[in-house]
Amino acid sequence: MPKITPEEIGKAAKLARIELSQQESDQMTNDVASILDFVEIIKNADTAGVEPTSQVTGLKDVWREDEIKKSKVAPKDLLAGAPYTHDGYVKVKKVM
After folding, report:
1. Which of 2, 50, 73, 91 allows an S-S link to 84, with CB 3.0 to 4.6 Å?
2. Hey, where are the domains in the chain?
3. CATH number listed for the domain at residues 6-43
């Protein structure tokens, strides 16, 4: 049974910049201990003969080749809707 101490919870809360009351710290210690117990059960599960699975829905990615298609709208007409343009491009403010 994995043990977690209130001190470890306090340290994690400090790193996450979360203030916990004593009651919240005690509750969090119990909750994390329960989660770690469950993880330990899962780690001990017998998976012999089970094939690794990345997904179970049977769905597959659908890929297609990129195709360049001629637009039915002239570039200058498309740029007319932009608030700012420069040399045939949409001009935007610097993002930092």
Report:
1. 91
2. 6-43
3. 1.10.20.60
